[in-house]
Design goal:
By secondary structure, this protein is an alpha+beta fold. The chain contains three helices and six strands; from the N terminus they run ααββββββα. Strands 1, 2, 3, 4, 5 and 6 form a six-stranded antiparallel beta sheet that branches. The longest helix has 23 residues. The mean pLDDT is 88.
Length: 116
């Protein structure tokens, strides 16, 4: 019986540690797996050429505005050069970028559009 209580206590402590670390640690994997971080759309304008990572991958590090109107920096990759001046809607979970899509300027909420 004592061994069961120790095992349960250890399991509870481990779960608490894992959850607290996933809330405090900001990295892409932790953000992707953490169920307590909600998805937010971030709107960006392509204002630079992506850095070539390899023959088919380009990395973009851009500042955008999230749906709450706050400035955030996001990093994501694309399999091609993105059109300069294009607007993107990026589906994020803090530092994790799930997906992105090009949108028209009129599709961006007006409060966000004014800050871009």
């Amino acid at each position: 019986m004592k061994a069961v209580k120790i095992a349960i206590g250890t399991l509870i402590v481990a779960v608490i540690l894992i959850l607290s670390m996933s809330l405090l640690v900001k990295n892409e994997l932790a953000d992707m797996l953490n169920p307590f971080i909600s998805h937010k759309d971030v709107f960006v304008r392509i204002d630079q050429i992506g850095e070539r990572i390899d023959s088919k991958t380009y990395e973009y590090i851009l500042e955008g505005i999230n749906e709450d109107g706050k400035k955030v920096q996001i990093a994501f990759t694309a399999s091609k050069h993105l059109r300069e001046g294009a607007y993107l809607k990026v589906d994020t979970k803090r530092t994790y970028v799930k997906s992105w899509e090009e949108v028209q300027q009129k599709e961006i909420p007006s409060a966000v559009r004014d800050k871009l």
